[in-house]
Amino acid sequence: RNWKKADRKGHRLAGFFTCLNALNPAPLNIISHSMGNRVFQGLWVKTGGSLRLDKVILAAPDLDGDIFSRDFATLPAGCKRIVIVKHDKDRLLTASRVLLGRKRLGRNTHIQPPPPNLVLVDATHYATLRHIDMSNHMHFIFSDSVRHQLHKLSD
């Protein structure tokens, strides 16, 4: 149910982002986390992949592992860089995989063939503040190393 709501929200944002692209000649940067990636998925599908994007950061994406062969097939051509922040021990994405019966992009990411502009940030072994993030799901917030890596990639 929440997945469908996220898709609908992405569809509703399509007009706004299309307008932003029309008013601003510079490509947009997108950063989304967890189910927010579903909102971006709905947005990308609704716009037919026509948005001008510079960088897209998908942090802990709760998306199907094969999304680049379906809904995101045109994403690599539509932006300069795609960054996926994954964690192989993400407990919330593990639960999502069990509920949906499908691999999650933010957990065990194996995109074949990987797009040339894809950068994978594996946060599995970065130190985090474990007493705050016992789920391993908010690693980009609680890990200085991951934040530093994202900052370098955003230049």
Task: Give a topology summary.
Layout: H1 2-23, E1 28-33, H2 36-46, E2 53-59, H3 75-78, E3 81-86, H4 91-100, E4 118-122, H5 139-142, H6 144-153
Parallel strand pairs: 1-2, 2-3, 3-4
Overview of the molecule:
It is a single chain. The protein is an alpha/beta fold and 155 residues long. Helices cover 39% and strands 15% of the residues. A four-stranded parallel β-sheet has the order 1-2-3-4, sandwiched between helices. Strand 2, helix 3 and strand 3 form a beta-alpha-beta unit. Helix 1 crosses helix 2. The chain starts with a helix and ends with a helix. The mean pLDDT is 84.
Helix amount: 25-40%
User: For the largest beta sheet, what order do the strands appear in spatially?
Assistant: 1-2-3-4
**Structural shape:** globular
Low-confidence stretches: none
Gyration radius from CA atoms, angstroms: 15 Å
Q: Determine the number of helices (DSSP H or I, runs of at least 4 residues).
A: 6
How far is the N terminus from the C terminus?
37 Å
Query: Count the strands?
Result: 4
- Amount of beta strand: 15-25%
**Class based on secondary structure composition and strand pairing:** alpha/beta
Written as H for each helix and E for each strand, in order along the chain, the element string is HEHEHEHEHH
